[in-house]
Amino acid sequence: MTEIAIIGGGPAGVMCALNAAQNIDNKIFLFDNGIILNTLLPTGGGRCNLAYAEYDFKELVKFYPRGEKFLYSIFSRFSTPDTINFFEKIGIKIYTQNDNRIFPVSNSSKDVKNALTKQIEKHKNIKKVFEEVIDIQKQNNQFLLKTNKKTYLFDKVVIATGGRGGGQKLAQKLGHKITELKPALCSLITCEKEYACLTGISIKDVEASVFFKNKKFKELKGDFLFTHKGISGPVVYKISSYCAYLNFNEKEPLKIVFNLAGKDFENFDCEFSKLLKKHPQKASVNILSGMLPSNLVLKIFEAENVDPKTRAGQLTKKDREKISKKITNFILHAKNVSKGEEIVTAGGVDLKEINPKTLESKIVSGLYFCGEVLDIDGLTGGFNLQNCWSTGFVAGTQLAQNI
Ligand SMILES: Cc1cc2nc3c(=O)[nH]c(=O)nc-3n(C[C@H](O)[C@H](O)[C@H](O)COP(=O)(O)OP(=O)(O)OC[C@H]3O[C@@H](n4cnc5c(N)ncnc54)[C@H](O)[C@@H]3O)c2cc1C
Fold first, then answer.
1. Region 49-73 average pLDDT
2. Which residue of 38, 168, 336, 345 lies most exposed, with the fewest beta carbons within 10 A?
3. Domain carrying residue 54
Protein backbone atom coordinates (compact mmCIF):
# COMPACT_ATOMS: atom_id res chain seq x y z
CA MET A 1 0.00 0.00 0.00
CA THR A 2 1.30 3.43 -0.93
CA GLU A 3 2.91 5.12 2.07
CA ILE A 4 3.19 8.84 2.59
CA ALA A 5 5.63 10.99 4.53
CA ILE A 6 4.83 14.52 5.59
CA ILE A 7 7.91 16.31 6.88
CA GLY A 8 6.99 19.06 9.34
CA GLY A 9 4.15 19.09 11.86
CA GLY A 10 3.49 22.83 11.73
CA PRO A 11 0.12 24.27 10.64
CA ALA A 12 0.75 23.44 6.96
CA GLY A 13 1.92 19.85 7.51
CA VAL A 14 -0.95 19.12 9.93
CA MET A 15 -3.58 20.59 7.58
CA CYS A 16 -2.11 18.46 4.79
CA ALA A 17 -2.11 15.30 6.94
CA LEU A 18 -5.73 15.81 8.07
CA ASN A 19 -7.01 16.35 4.54
CA ALA A 20 -5.11 13.39 3.12
CA ALA A 21 -6.20 11.13 6.01
CA GLN A 22 -9.83 12.08 5.52
CA ASN A 23 -9.77 10.75 1.96
CA ILE A 24 -7.58 7.63 2.13
CA ASP A 25 -6.72 4.77 4.47
CA ASN A 26 -3.05 4.71 3.56
CA LYS A 27 -0.50 5.23 6.33
CA ILE A 28 0.66 8.82 6.71
CA PHE A 29 3.89 9.36 8.64
CA LEU A 30 4.04 12.87 10.13
CA PHE A 31 7.67 13.69 10.93
CA ASP A 32 8.69 16.47 13.26
CA ASN A 33 12.01 17.18 14.93
CA GLY A 34 10.30 19.15 17.68
CA ILE A 35 6.79 19.18 19.12
CA ILE A 36 3.92 19.03 16.63
CA LEU A 37 2.09 22.38 16.27
CA ASN A 38 4.30 24.17 18.77
CA THR A 39 4.97 26.85 16.15
CA LEU A 40 1.30 27.85 16.49
CA LEU A 41 1.67 28.82 20.14
CA PRO A 42 3.35 32.25 19.75
CA THR A 43 1.13 33.31 16.84
CA GLY A 44 -0.87 36.48 17.25
CA GLY A 45 0.87 37.10 20.58
CA GLY A 46 -0.56 33.81 21.90
CA ARG A 47 -4.03 34.56 20.49
CA CYS A 48 -3.51 32.94 17.04
CA ASN A 49 -4.58 35.31 14.29
CA LEU A 50 -5.64 32.44 12.07
CA ALA A 51 -7.13 34.30 9.08
CA TYR A 52 -8.21 37.67 7.70
CA ALA A 53 -11.80 38.64 6.91
CA GLU A 54 -11.36 39.19 3.17
CA TYR A 55 -13.88 36.90 1.54
CA ASP A 56 -13.01 37.62 -2.09
CA PHE A 57 -10.02 35.43 -2.86
CA LYS A 58 -9.02 37.72 -5.75
CA GLU A 59 -8.55 40.48 -3.15
CA LEU A 60 -7.00 38.16 -0.56
CA VAL A 61 -4.04 37.30 -2.84
CA LYS A 62 -3.07 41.00 -2.89
CA PHE A 63 -1.81 40.77 0.70
CA TYR A 64 1.10 38.55 -0.36
CA PRO A 65 4.25 40.38 -1.49
CA ARG A 66 5.46 36.99 -2.76
CA GLY A 67 3.12 34.32 -4.09
CA GLU A 68 0.22 36.51 -5.23
CA LYS A 69 -0.30 34.89 -8.64
CA PHE A 70 0.51 31.40 -7.45
CA LEU A 71 -2.09 31.56 -4.68
CA TYR A 72 -4.90 32.48 -7.07
CA SER A 73 -5.97 28.93 -7.92
CA ILE A 74 -5.21 27.67 -4.40
CA PHE A 75 -7.41 30.33 -2.78
CA SER A 76 -10.13 29.69 -5.36
CA ARG A 77 -10.38 26.26 -3.73
CA PHE A 78 -9.76 27.06 -0.07
CA SER A 79 -9.70 30.53 1.45
CA THR A 80 -11.18 32.57 4.34
CA PRO A 81 -14.72 31.08 4.45
CA ASP A 82 -13.30 27.54 4.23
CA THR A 83 -10.86 28.28 7.07
CA ILE A 84 -13.72 29.53 9.25
CA ASN A 85 -15.86 26.46 8.39
CA PHE A 86 -12.97 24.13 9.06
CA PHE A 87 -12.26 25.57 12.50
CA GLU A 88 -15.91 25.79 13.51
CA LYS A 89 -16.32 22.13 12.53
CA ILE A 90 -13.47 21.09 14.81
CA GLY A 91 -14.94 23.10 17.69
CA ILE A 92 -13.08 26.40 17.44
CA LYS A 93 -15.48 29.33 17.43
CA ILE A 94 -14.02 32.38 15.81
CA TYR A 95 -14.59 36.16 15.84
CA THR A 96 -13.44 39.04 13.67
CA GLN A 97 -11.77 42.10 15.16
CA ASN A 98 -12.48 45.65 13.89
CA ASP A 99 -9.30 45.49 11.83
CA ASN A 100 -10.56 42.32 10.05
CA ARG A 101 -8.19 39.96 11.80
CA ILE A 102 -9.80 36.65 12.76
CA PHE A 103 -9.10 34.96 16.11
CA PRO A 104 -10.52 32.08 18.14
CA VAL A 105 -13.17 33.34 20.61
CA SER A 106 -11.01 31.98 23.45
CA ASN A 107 -8.09 34.13 22.21
CA SER A 108 -5.89 31.14 22.84
CA SER A 109 -3.52 29.59 20.31
CA LYS A 110 -3.25 26.66 22.73
CA ASP A 111 -6.93 25.88 22.10
CA VAL A 112 -6.33 25.90 18.35
CA LYS A 113 -3.36 23.58 18.80
CA ASN A 114 -5.40 21.24 21.03
CA ALA A 115 -8.33 21.09 18.59
CA LEU A 116 -6.01 20.22 15.69
CA THR A 117 -4.15 17.67 17.83
CA LYS A 118 -7.47 15.98 18.66
CA GLN A 119 -8.17 15.68 14.94
CA ILE A 120 -4.78 14.06 14.36
CA GLU A 121 -5.55 11.53 17.12
CA LYS A 122 -8.90 10.70 15.50
CA HIS A 123 -7.20 9.52 12.30
CA LYS A 124 -5.66 6.16 13.09
CA ASN A 125 -3.74 6.22 9.80
CA ILE A 126 -1.64 9.26 10.88
CA LYS A 127 1.50 8.10 12.64
CA LYS A 128 3.56 10.74 14.41
CA VAL A 129 7.33 10.29 14.17
CA PHE A 130 9.55 12.51 16.30
CA GLU A 131 12.67 12.38 14.16
CA GLU A 132 14.59 14.89 12.08
CA VAL A 133 14.64 14.22 8.36
CA ILE A 134 18.18 14.80 7.19
CA ASP A 135 18.17 13.46 3.64
CA ILE A 136 15.79 12.43 0.86
CA GLN A 137 16.78 10.64 -2.33
CA LYS A 138 14.60 9.52 -5.19
CA GLN A 139 15.09 5.81 -5.91
CA ASN A 140 13.15 4.57 -8.92
CA ASN A 141 9.56 5.53 -8.07
CA GLN A 142 10.15 5.85 -4.34
CA PHE A 143 11.83 8.17 -1.87
CA LEU A 144 14.58 6.99 0.46
CA LEU A 145 14.13 9.15 3.52
CA LYS A 146 16.87 9.31 6.11
CA THR A 147 16.26 10.65 9.61
CA ASN A 148 18.62 11.13 12.54
CA LYS A 149 17.50 7.64 13.68
CA LYS A 150 16.40 5.47 10.74
CA THR A 151 15.96 5.08 7.00
CA TYR A 152 12.51 4.70 5.41
CA LEU A 153 11.02 4.15 1.95
CA PHE A 154 8.00 6.20 0.88
CA ASP A 155 5.93 6.54 -2.27
CA LYS A 156 4.92 10.17 -1.75
CA VAL A 157 6.63 12.90 0.26
CA VAL A 158 5.36 16.32 1.36
CA ILE A 159 7.86 18.93 2.55
CA ALA A 160 6.23 21.30 5.07
CA THR A 161 9.21 22.36 7.14
CA GLY A 162 8.46 26.09 7.37
CA GLY A 163 10.52 29.17 6.49
CA ARG A 164 13.87 28.15 7.92
CA GLY A 165 13.33 24.50 8.80
CA GLY A 166 15.96 22.97 6.55
CA GLY A 167 13.37 21.69 4.08
CA GLN A 168 14.74 24.02 1.45
CA LYS A 169 18.04 22.11 1.57
CA LEU A 170 16.19 18.80 1.14
CA ALA A 171 14.32 20.29 -1.85
CA GLN A 172 17.54 21.67 -3.31
CA LYS A 173 19.14 18.22 -3.16
CA LEU A 174 16.19 16.86 -5.11
CA GLY A 175 16.85 19.44 -7.84
CA HIS A 176 14.69 22.38 -6.78
CA LYS A 177 15.76 26.00 -6.99
CA ILE A 178 15.51 28.00 -3.76
CA THR A 179 15.02 31.75 -4.05
CA GLU A 180 17.10 33.80 -1.63
CA LEU A 181 15.87 33.62 1.98
CA LYS A 182 15.35 36.99 3.66
CA PRO A 183 13.77 38.07 6.93
CA ALA A 184 10.35 39.73 6.51
CA LEU A 185 7.80 41.22 8.89
CA CYS A 186 10.41 42.56 11.27
CA SER A 187 11.57 45.73 12.98
CA LEU A 188 14.00 48.08 11.25
CA ILE A 189 17.27 49.46 12.58
CA THR A 190 17.61 53.16 11.84
CA CYS A 191 20.69 55.33 11.28
CA GLU A 192 19.23 57.97 13.64
CA LYS A 193 20.15 57.15 17.25
CA GLU A 194 18.66 60.25 18.86
CA TYR A 195 15.16 58.75 19.08
CA ALA A 196 16.20 55.78 21.24
CA CYS A 197 14.88 57.71 24.26
CA LEU A 198 11.39 57.42 22.73
CA THR A 199 11.43 53.60 22.94
CA GLY A 200 7.91 52.24 23.42
CA ILE A 201 6.17 55.38 22.15
CA SER A 202 3.69 54.54 19.41
CA ILE A 203 1.89 56.67 16.85
CA LYS A 204 -1.38 55.65 15.25
CA ASP A 205 -2.25 55.62 11.56
CA VAL A 206 0.76 57.30 10.02
CA GLU A 207 1.46 57.54 6.31
CA ALA A 208 4.88 56.33 5.25
CA SER A 209 6.54 57.00 1.89
CA VAL A 210 9.52 54.77 1.30
CA PHE A 211 12.38 55.85 -0.98
CA PHE A 212 15.38 53.83 -2.12
CA LYS A 213 18.23 55.28 -4.17
CA ASN A 214 16.25 58.53 -4.54
CA LYS A 215 13.23 56.81 -6.03
CA LYS A 216 9.86 56.46 -4.36
CA PHE A 217 9.32 52.74 -3.82
CA LYS A 218 6.09 52.39 -1.86
CA GLU A 219 3.43 54.27 0.09
CA LEU A 220 2.02 52.51 3.15
CA LYS A 221 -0.15 53.26 6.16
CA GLY A 222 -0.39 51.98 9.74
CA ASP A 223 0.78 52.37 13.33
CA PHE A 224 4.45 52.48 14.28
CA LEU A 225 6.52 52.59 17.41
CA PHE A 226 10.03 53.58 18.40
CA THR A 227 12.36 50.85 19.64
CA HIS A 228 15.79 51.17 21.22
CA LYS A 229 17.43 50.44 17.85
CA GLY A 230 14.89 51.92 15.46
CA ILE A 231 11.24 51.39 14.63
CA SER A 232 8.65 48.63 14.68
CA GLY A 233 4.88 48.10 14.44
CA PRO A 234 2.45 47.25 11.64
CA VAL A 235 3.55 49.84 9.07
CA VAL A 236 7.21 48.98 9.69
CA TYR A 237 6.46 45.27 9.22
CA LYS A 238 4.87 46.13 5.89
CA ILE A 239 7.94 48.14 4.87
CA SER A 240 10.28 45.28 5.86
CA SER A 241 8.18 42.89 3.82
CA TYR A 242 7.93 44.94 0.63
CA CYS A 243 11.60 45.99 0.86
CA ALA A 244 12.95 42.53 1.80
CA TYR A 245 15.04 42.29 -1.38
CA LEU A 246 16.28 45.91 -1.68
CA ASN A 247 19.65 45.27 0.03
CA PHE A 248 19.61 48.55 1.91
CA ASN A 249 22.44 49.32 4.32
CA GLU A 250 24.18 52.15 6.19
CA LYS A 251 25.60 53.61 2.95
CA GLU A 252 22.39 53.17 0.99
CA PRO A 253 19.59 53.18 3.56
CA LEU A 254 15.86 53.23 2.98
CA LYS A 255 14.57 56.76 3.40
CA ILE A 256 11.19 56.68 5.15
CA VAL A 257 9.16 59.86 5.23
CA PHE A 258 6.44 59.61 7.88
CA ASN A 259 3.52 61.95 7.99
CA LEU A 260 2.86 61.77 11.71
CA ALA A 261 -0.20 64.00 11.46
CA GLY A 262 -1.96 62.15 8.65
CA LYS A 263 -2.74 65.58 7.10
CA ASP A 264 -0.85 67.58 4.49
CA PHE A 265 1.51 70.35 5.60
CA GLU A 266 -0.87 73.24 4.75
CA ASN A 267 -3.78 71.82 6.74
CA PHE A 268 -1.67 70.75 9.66
CA ASP A 269 0.13 74.08 9.85
CA CYS A 270 -3.20 75.93 9.68
CA GLU A 271 -4.62 73.83 12.53
CA PHE A 272 -1.44 74.31 14.59
CA SER A 273 -1.60 78.05 14.00
CA LYS A 274 -5.24 78.20 15.20
CA LEU A 275 -4.37 76.27 18.37
CA LEU A 276 -1.44 78.57 19.10
CA LYS A 277 -3.72 81.61 18.77
CA LYS A 278 -6.35 79.99 20.99
CA HIS A 279 -3.92 79.36 23.87
CA PRO A 280 -1.34 82.18 23.63
CA GLN A 281 -0.10 81.73 27.21
CA LYS A 282 0.56 77.99 26.97
CA ALA A 283 4.07 76.68 26.29
CA SER A 284 3.99 75.96 22.55
CA VAL A 285 5.24 72.38 23.07
CA ASN A 286 2.07 71.62 25.04
CA ILE A 287 -0.19 72.79 22.24
CA LEU A 288 0.49 69.61 20.26
CA SER A 289 0.43 67.14 23.10
CA GLY A 290 -3.22 66.29 22.44
CA MET A 291 -2.31 65.17 18.92
CA LEU A 292 1.03 63.43 19.42
CA PRO A 293 2.93 61.90 22.36
CA SER A 294 4.46 64.77 24.34
CA ASN A 295 7.97 63.23 24.47
CA LEU A 296 7.99 63.04 20.70
CA VAL A 297 6.84 66.65 20.35
CA LEU A 298 9.56 67.73 22.75
CA LYS A 299 12.15 65.83 20.70
CA ILE A 300 10.90 67.52 17.53
CA PHE A 301 11.24 70.99 19.10
CA GLU A 302 14.77 70.06 20.18
CA ALA A 303 15.69 68.75 16.75
CA GLU A 304 14.47 71.98 15.14
CA ASN A 305 16.25 74.17 17.72
CA VAL A 306 13.00 75.73 18.88
CA ASP A 307 12.72 76.48 22.60
CA PRO A 308 9.79 74.29 23.75
CA LYS A 309 8.93 76.76 26.52
CA THR A 310 8.22 79.60 24.04
CA ARG A 311 4.71 80.94 24.74
CA ALA A 312 2.31 79.92 22.01
CA GLY A 313 1.53 83.55 21.23
CA GLN A 314 5.22 84.28 20.71
CA LEU A 315 6.15 81.37 18.43
CA THR A 316 7.37 82.88 15.15
CA LYS A 317 5.81 81.86 11.83
CA LYS A 318 9.19 80.47 10.76
CA ASP A 319 9.50 78.28 13.87
CA ARG A 320 5.87 77.13 13.61
CA GLU A 321 6.42 76.11 9.98
CA LYS A 322 9.62 74.28 10.89
CA ILE A 323 7.72 72.23 13.48
CA SER A 324 4.77 71.60 11.14
CA LYS A 325 7.15 70.46 8.40
CA LYS A 326 9.02 68.12 10.72
CA ILE A 327 5.72 66.53 11.83
CA THR A 328 4.36 66.05 8.33
CA ASN A 329 7.80 65.07 6.94
CA PHE A 330 9.40 63.09 9.72
CA ILE A 331 12.35 61.39 8.06
CA LEU A 332 14.15 58.29 9.27
CA HIS A 333 16.72 56.14 7.47
CA ALA A 334 16.63 52.36 7.87
CA LYS A 335 19.99 50.64 7.48
CA ASN A 336 19.03 47.07 8.36
CA VAL A 337 16.32 44.74 9.54
CA SER A 338 16.34 43.41 13.07
CA LYS A 339 17.57 39.89 12.26
CA GLY A 340 16.37 36.86 14.19
CA GLU A 341 13.11 38.56 15.18
CA GLU A 342 11.32 38.09 11.88
CA ILE A 343 7.80 36.67 11.80
CA VAL A 344 8.24 35.08 8.38
CA THR A 345 10.92 34.24 5.88
CA ALA A 346 10.66 35.64 2.39
CA GLY A 347 11.99 33.27 -0.28
CA GLY A 348 11.89 29.50 -0.45
CA VAL A 349 11.12 26.77 -2.96
CA ASP A 350 10.80 28.46 -6.37
CA LEU A 351 7.12 28.55 -7.35
CA LYS A 352 7.96 28.14 -11.05
CA GLU A 353 8.79 24.51 -10.33
CA ILE A 354 5.53 23.73 -8.49
CA ASN A 355 2.12 23.02 -10.01
CA PRO A 356 -0.27 25.50 -8.30
CA LYS A 357 -3.26 23.22 -8.91
CA THR A 358 -1.77 20.25 -7.04
CA LEU A 359 1.29 21.59 -5.17
CA GLU A 360 3.25 18.71 -6.68
CA SER A 361 6.77 19.32 -7.91
CA LYS A 362 7.04 19.72 -11.69
CA ILE A 363 10.46 18.12 -11.59
CA VAL A 364 10.12 15.24 -9.09
CA SER A 365 6.85 13.35 -9.32
CA GLY A 366 5.33 12.31 -5.99
CA LEU A 367 6.97 15.23 -4.17
CA TYR A 368 4.68 17.96 -2.74
CA PHE A 369 5.15 21.19 -0.79
CA CYS A 370 2.97 23.33 1.46
CA GLY A 371 3.32 26.27 3.85
CA GLU A 372 6.13 28.70 4.39
CA VAL A 373 8.79 26.44 2.87
CA LEU A 374 7.47 27.75 -0.45
CA ASP A 375 8.42 31.18 -1.78
CA ILE A 376 5.19 32.64 -0.37
CA ASP A 377 4.83 35.19 2.40
CA GLY A 378 2.06 37.56 3.40
CA LEU A 379 1.70 40.70 5.48
CA THR A 380 0.63 40.58 9.14
CA GLY A 381 -3.06 39.94 9.68
CA GLY A 382 -3.47 36.15 9.48
CA PHE A 383 -2.24 35.81 5.90
CA ASN A 384 0.68 33.51 6.67
CA LEU A 385 -1.46 30.98 8.50
CA GLN A 386 -4.06 31.26 5.72
CA ASN A 387 -1.29 30.25 3.32
CA CYS A 388 -0.65 27.17 5.50
CA TRP A 389 -4.33 26.16 5.74
CA SER A 390 -4.88 26.63 1.99
CA THR A 391 -1.71 25.03 0.64
CA GLY A 392 -2.01 22.26 3.27
CA PHE A 393 -5.57 21.57 2.13
CA VAL A 394 -4.68 21.48 -1.58
CA ALA A 395 -1.54 19.34 -1.09
CA GLY A 396 -3.41 16.89 1.18
CA THR A 397 -6.49 16.46 -1.03
CA GLN A 398 -4.48 16.24 -4.26
CA LEU A 399 -2.08 13.75 -2.76
CA ALA A 400 -5.02 11.56 -1.73
CA GLN A 401 -6.54 11.80 -5.21
CA ASN A 402 -3.29 10.74 -6.85
CA ILE A 403 -2.91 7.53 -4.84
C1 LIG B 1 6.15 35.09 16.79
C2 LIG B 1 5.33 34.73 15.56
C3 LIG B 1 4.01 35.10 15.51
C4 LIG B 1 3.25 34.80 14.37
N5 LIG B 1 1.94 35.13 14.35
C6 LIG B 1 1.19 34.84 13.26
C7 LIG B 1 -0.19 35.12 13.24
O8 LIG B 1 -0.78 35.54 14.23
N9 LIG B 1 -0.87 34.87 12.08
C10 LIG B 1 -0.27 34.35 10.97
O11 LIG B 1 -0.93 34.18 9.95
N12 LIG B 1 1.04 34.01 10.98
C13 LIG B 1 1.78 34.24 12.10
N14 LIG B 1 3.10 33.87 12.13
C15 LIG B 1 3.67 33.14 10.98
C16 LIG B 1 3.25 31.65 11.04
O17 LIG B 1 3.44 31.16 12.35
C18 LIG B 1 4.07 30.83 10.04
O19 LIG B 1 3.91 31.36 8.77
C20 LIG B 1 3.61 29.36 10.08
O21 LIG B 1 3.85 28.78 11.34
C22 LIG B 1 4.33 28.53 9.02
O23 LIG B 1 3.81 27.22 9.11
P24 LIG B 1 4.54 25.96 8.44
O25 LIG B 1 3.71 24.80 8.80
O26 LIG B 1 4.81 26.26 7.02
O27 LIG B 1 5.95 25.90 9.16
P28 LIG B 1 6.31 25.85 10.70
O29 LIG B 1 5.21 26.41 11.52
O30 LIG B 1 7.65 26.47 10.80
O31 LIG B 1 6.40 24.30 11.03
C32 LIG B 1 7.42 23.50 10.49
C33 LIG B 1 7.60 22.29 11.36
O34 LIG B 1 8.53 21.44 10.71
C35 LIG B 1 9.45 20.92 11.66
N36 LIG B 1 10.69 20.62 10.92
C37 LIG B 1 11.49 21.51 10.30
N38 LIG B 1 12.50 20.87 9.69
C39 LIG B 1 12.33 19.56 9.94
C40 LIG B 1 13.06 18.37 9.58
N41 LIG B 1 14.15 18.42 8.83
N42 LIG B 1 12.60 17.17 10.01
C43 LIG B 1 11.46 17.09 10.78
N44 LIG B 1 10.75 18.18 11.12
C45 LIG B 1 11.17 19.38 10.72
C46 LIG B 1 9.57 22.02 12.71
O47 LIG B 1 9.94 21.48 13.97
C48 LIG B 1 8.15 22.58 12.73
O49 LIG B 1 7.35 21.94 13.72
C50 LIG B 1 3.87 34.15 13.26
C51 LIG B 1 5.22 33.78 13.35
C52 LIG B 1 5.94 34.06 14.48
C53 LIG B 1 7.39 33.65 14.53
1. 98
2. 38
3. 4-182+344-401
